[in-house]
């Protein structure tokens, strides 16, 4: 990894009083890496940041609790995905608008296949009533 | 020296889930507005990458218009030199001049 360049850090992280300094440092280190290279081992993080394993776990737990970090477990290392918590976005409204209908219930019964309407309801009606056709 | 891998498309998350499509999504109007605000605040805080924007536009996810506007703004501010989708330095959405009105 080159030592030149810079990293952009969100102000909301730096001004967040709930996080410890080590947790912020961990976030900054992960942010400095490219998203394709964020598969890291604990030993690597320990040596880069100069933290003990207990402190590292606490930092991770803090970031995960405050929704700054999502850890995806892989076979021998973890993938670290960075996010910003949702509370930074202003709530738009407290409306109780229902979600859109998820099933097409209005078009369930009369389905059109090859220009013929297969009406399921009538067959069922015939069975229930014991209706027998002439043939 | 190993070459850096080509830029991949990275998914963008809303409520810990990937964004839904532009059409046939189940977002309410408030959620849609929240997504656009979240995209904007992510961009302003520097947490939105070009890979995520290309993913939103290529996969036709909700918020693709906002993503295009953000890419145009990046081009204007010279954060990126070329549009990652077209390879040109023209904006997606041309801003109206005095004679267009």
Write structural notes for this entry.
The complex is a heterodimer of chains A (135) and B (101). With 135 residues, chain A is an alpha+beta fold. Helix content of chain A is 35%, strand content 15%. Chain A has a domain at 11-85: Winged helix-like DNA-binding domain superfamily/Winged helix DNA-binding domain (Arc Repressor Mutant, subunit A, Orthogonal Bundle). Chain A has 5 helices and 5 strands. In chain A, the strands form 2 sheets. A 3-stranded antiparallel beta sheet of chain A has the order 1-3-2. In chain A, strands 4-5 form a two-stranded antiparallel sheet. Chain B has 101 residues and is mainly alpha-helical. A two-stranded antiparallel ribbon of chain B has the order 1-2. Chain B starts with 12 loop residues before the first strand and ends in a 25-residue tail after the last helix. The chains are: A alpha+beta (135), B mainly alpha (101).
Order of helices and strands of chain B: EEHHH
Biggest sheet strand order of chain A reads 1-3-2
CATH superfamily of the domain at 11-85 in chain A: Winged helix-like DNA-binding domain superfamily/Winged helix DNA-binding domain
| Helical fraction of chain A | 25-40%
Tally of strands of chain B: 2
Outline type of chain A: globular
Largest interface: A-B, 25 and 22 residues
Averaged pLDDT of chain A:
78
CATH topology of the domain at 11-85 in chain A: Arc Repressor Mutant, subunit A
- Give the SSE string of chain A: HHEHHEEEEH
- Mind telling me the C-alpha Rg of chain A? 29 Å
* Beta-strand content estimate of chain B: under 5%
Envelope shape of chain B: globular
Radius of gyration of chain B: 15 Å
